[in-house]
Amino acid sequence: MDKLELEKIRFTLEIQFREQLVHRPEFPFFQSIGLKDIFQTFRNIDGTHLGTIHLKWSSGRTWKLSRWIDTQEEAEDFIRNIYHNKLFSTEKLIIVHHQEEVKRQEKIRAEHEMEELLRDGKMLWN
Prior knowledge:
The protein has helices at 3-22, 72-84, 90-120; strands at 37-43, 49-58, 62-69. By secondary structure, the chain is of the alpha+beta class. It has two domains: 3-86, no CATH class; 88-126. The longest helix has 31 residues, at 90-120.
């Protein structure tokens, strides 16, 4: 496959990938949860690596094609670099979110218990 054929295939893959991406229910929220880079690797039926697309969120409220990465190894290195150079820790963010969700669920449970005690007349008022 020559370079022109590969560019045509990549263009078609990009269009199809973007079309599928915008129909995902979580798509409008990617950038608000800190997702600024999207990667997708494409292969032929025979397993030939066609490339990895990198879409980057721009401040213009759109996802722009950053580049096509030619090899799997280069893509993995690039993704690893982006992950390690983030301004925040995904792991810490998940932990904090989990802790806050546990607190929220405990508060909801306590409110439900209080409502049941009041409804059943089992709560004593002094």
